[in-house]
Amino acid sequence: MTEHRDVAVGPPDEYVEAEIHRMLAEDPDVAEQGITVVRRERGLVLYGEVESPHRREEILRRVAERFPDVPITSDIGVIRAQAPTEIEQLP
Asked: pLDDT tens across 79-89, in order?
């Protein structure tokens, strides 16, 4: 009788957060250090803020490509940086 064991794909769980953070920080096309990766019961949650919805989608796409078997949830907000509507006058 042969025993079958499930083999984990990719790095061990305790290293996934660090690998994602390093990937986002070191990739010259992303260079994002403000994203926090937290392991939860059902996968990983990415927290932080970025300057555009496009940037958020690019981060999620890259993480999903690199770790396709890891469930990822996004809690990445978009910073709304707009030009001032009034002129600031200093005394």
From this structure: 876 666 677 67
Residue-wise pLDDT tens digits, 56-81: 999 999 999 988 988 888 999 998 76
Distance separating alpha carbons of residues 18 and 20, to the nearest angstrom = 6
Taking the chain, what is the end-to-end CA distance rounded to the nearest angstrom? 86
Query: With contact defined as beta carbons under 8 Å apart, do 44 and 69 qualify?
Result: no
- To the nearest 10 degrees (0 to 180), the angle between helices 53-66 and 13-26 is 130
The whole-angstrom separation of Cα 17 and Cα 23 is 10
Helix (H) or strand (E) holding 63: helix 53-66
Distance from the Cα of residue 25 to its chain's centroid: 10
**Residue whose C-alpha is closest to residue 20's, from 89, 71, 79, 90:** 71
DSSP label at residue 57 = H
Predicted TM-score (pTM) of this structure: 0.69
